[in-house]
Design goal:
Blueprint: H1 3-9, H2 14-22, H3 34-50, H4 54-71, H5 77-90, H6 94-103, H7 112-128, H8 132-143, H9 149-152, H10 160-169, H11 173-189, H12 193-208
Helix pairs in contact: 1-2, 2-3, 3-4, 3-5, 4-5, 5-6, 5-7, 6-7, 7-8, 8-10, 10-11, 10-12, 11-12
């Protein structure tokens, strides 16, 4: 259900992308359509969040969450609650944010398409609160997944910049450099400008950090690809056996308020 992202990338505009998702959210739940509708509402909430329509996004999340409690379709649960967690954290409503984090809970025993939004929910709530150690911890399962292609591809899941920034903010400068370089190279090869911009934020903080690199590294064909899973100082965790990692559009980062 990334048609909204494909529409916007094709030049149709963000509004057309949102309409593409809304078209597959039925006004009434018909036999066989509940799973598709919930999945679509998860992406619709992401689209509304990216467009700055946070109240609309929360309404979409709430509507989908109510339906999830009735039908118990687990596959869509983390995706739906991810957006709720992020918005409430950015607004400083920590109790509501943690509620959605709990509802989005998934681990390595779940499909990757459940694990990744669950980890992002935890990470982005921690990031909004300035707890970068927890950001690193939250995204560690994603880093350790063995099947990398759909996970690291620019514009699929918006996690690399969040993780790289947390590495810098916790003083892991060498790890940040080793992590950033292949992701920057891949984003450049794909000409994915929004991914390059998000990674550029982490690169800027790494450059400004005491002991950080002064310039981005030169591109080299010998540098490992993000899909090679060869980042230093990491062990390999058991990977999900499911191939179900789906692309999503990468929303622009909003300003993160300081928690009260």
């Amino acid at each position: 259900m990334s048609s909204w992202w494909l529409a916007s990338k094709a030049g149709a505009g963000a509004g057309a992308g949102e309409a593409a998702v809304e078209d597959v959210v039925p006004t009434g739940y018909r036999m066989g359509s509940t799973r598709i509708s919930l999945w679509s509402q998860g992406w619709l909430a992401r689209t509304q969040f990216a467009l700055g329509a946070w109240p609309d996004a929360l309404e979409t999340v709430q509507r989908a969450a109510v339906r999830l409690t009735e039908v118990h379709i687990e596959l869509s649960r983390p995706l739906v609650h991810w957006t709720g967690a992020q918005i409430h954290a950015l607004r400083g409503d920590w109790d509501a944010a943690q509620h959605h984090v709990g509802e989005a809970l998934a681990d390595l025993h779940h499909y990757e398409v459940m694990l990744i939004p669950s980890c992002l929910a935890r990470a982005q709530v921690a990031e909004a609160g300035g707890d970068y150690e927890r950001v690193v911890e939250a995204l560690s399962p994603v880093v350790h997944l063995q099947e990398r292609q759909s996970i690291d591809e620019p514009g699929f899941w918006p996690w690399p910049d969040v993780y790289a920034n947390a590495l810098v903010m916790t003083g892991r400068l060498d790890q940040a450099e080793a992590f950033l370089a292949p992701h920057e190279e891949l984003a450049t090869r794909r000409s994915h400008r929004s991914a390059m911009a998000r990674l550029g934020l982490a690169r800027g903080r790494l450059t400004a950090a005491p002991g950080g690199t002064s310039t981005p590294p030169a591109r080299s064909s010998s540098r490992p690809s993000p899909t090679s899973n060869t980042y230093p100082s990491r062990t390999t965790a058991p990977a999900s056996t499911s191939p179900m990692a789906r692309p999503c559009g990468a929303p622009e980062n909003a300003a993160r308020p300081t928690p009260s």
